[in-house]
Amino acid sequence: MRSIKVELGERSYELVVGSNLLDQADSLLPSSNYTNIVAIVDANVDEPYAGRLVESLRRRARVEKLVVPPGESSKSLGVAAELLDRMAELKIRRQDLVVTLGGGVVSDLGGFVASIYQRGIAVAHVPTTLLAQVDAAIGGKTGVNLWAGKNLVGTFWQPVAVLADISLLETLAEREFRSGMAEVVKYGLCYEPPILQVVESQSGSYDPAVLEDLVYRSAGIKAAVVSQDETDVGGRTILNYGHTFGHALEAVGRYERWLHGEAISVGMMFAAHLAGSMGLLDSDGVDAHRRALEAAGLPIRASFDREAVVAAWGIDKKFLDGQRWVLLEGLANPVIRSGVGPEHIDHALAQVSEKA
Ligand SMILES: NC(=O)c1ccc[n+]([C@@H]2O[C@H](COP(=O)([O-])OP(=O)(O)OC[C@H]3O[C@@H](n4cnc5c(N)ncnc54)[C@H](O)[C@@H]3O)[C@@H](O)[C@H]2O)c1
Ligand SMILES: [Zn+2]
């Protein structure tokens, strides 16, 4: 078990990475006196894990479990309102604690609910997907979706602890696991290239010690970036590497065809070709992207309508000039560029397009 301090002044907290943390949750949470703990649980992880978590938390306080249906549709104002009503019925007070058990859907939703219930009560996350362990549960961004778009309502609300238990990933679907690996590769490309060699050294199933190390390093990078830029006005932009293209691809696929990590995998390949075309990244740098993403079982190309992807950037092709791109001027050297010429965009689109 290893822990990382997320440095945020008086909002600093511990992020613990290890195995079988569920049974020790009571001792890993901050020492405050909670009377009630509300566990907000994704229905898919209720049966395998909630019992152990609740049993452990009961050594600290009265525990109530609220289960939410799996999937992005639970990130809604409606589900948030139901949870808030239930919490009020249960007479949860300001000094109490919310603990989320689930992936990014539940940490975003539960974090949001905690942040607004009685003007904000403490929340701790027990992320159960790789994506949530290395990304969503760290950093304090919470949110729900509106019809008009994803994450349009939300708050910044830092957790009081994050317990990333890699043994919980055993039941995660292979495709979801690979999707989370895209963020791990992102950290390798943008901050810590040795991560890429570790990813390449694993084939198929990951050795638990190696996986724990990857989660620890990745979560540490996210924590460090967030410490520097808590409210996303600067350094956090780099975390969007591959995401401009990736978000467009997700939208074009109606959020069904590609998982987030699959879309940003193609997005990072797109960014590599863009940087390659502009002379920022040499062919070894482009190859490093391809090798790591392929080793992680992620797509490096996709079949999509190029006009639709460009349209999903939300800007007229004539105004592509204004678009800012996170690009790599060599591995671990991210830069932000605008005014990227259409010839580079066209080249990169062709490279990641399956029909190319
Ligand atoms: N707040 C942030 O900074 C941030 C960052 C990245 C992503 N997000 C958000 O995270 C969400 C995506 O998160 P996600 O990829 O974790 O998706 P998710 O929470 O929907 O989980 C993916 C699927 O896996 C299931 N599942 C979760 N853990 C499991 C386990 N251990 N065993 C078996 N099944 C399990 C879930 O029920 C779900 O079906 C999006 O809504 C995104 O906007 C937020
Ligand atoms: Zn992402």
Report on this model:
- The chain is an alpha/beta fold.
- 44% of the residues lie in helices and 16% in strands.
- It is built from 13 helices and eleven strands.
- The termini are far apart.
- Nicotinamide-adenine-dinucleotide (NAD) is lined by residues 42, 44-45, 70-72, 75, 102-106, 108, 128-129, 131-132, 135-136, 139, 141, 150-151, 168-169, 171-172, 176.
Distance between the termini: 46 Å
Instruction: Tell me the structural class.
Output: alpha/beta
* Fraction of residues in β-strands: 15-25%
Main pleated-sheet profile: 7 strands, mixed
Q: Please state the oligomeric state of the protein chains shown.
A: single chain
Separate helix tally: 13
Element pattern in H and E? EEHEHEHEHEHEEEHHHHHHHEEH
Shape: globular
- Rounded mean pLDDT is 95
Bound molecules: nicotinamide-adenine-dinucleotide, zinc ion
* Number of beta strands: 11
Flag low-confidence runs. Answer: none
Strands of the widest sheet, in order across it, are 1-2-9-6-5-3-4
SSE blueprint:
Elements: E1 2-6, E2 13-18, H1 25-28, E3 36-42, H2 43-57, E4 62-68, H3 77-89, E5 97-102, H4 104-116, E6 122-127, H5 130-136, E7 144-146, E8 149-153, E9 161-165, H6 174-190, H7 194-201, H8 208-228, H9 243-252, H10 260-277, H11 283-295, H12 306-312, E10 325-328, E11 334-337, H13 342-352
Parallel strand pairs: 2-9, 3-4, 3-5, 5-6, 6-9
Antiparallel strand pairs: 1-2, 7-8, 10-11
This protein binds nicotinamide-adenine-dinucleotide (NAD) and zinc ion (ZN).
Zinc ion (ZN) is lined by residues 135, 183, 243, 260, 264.
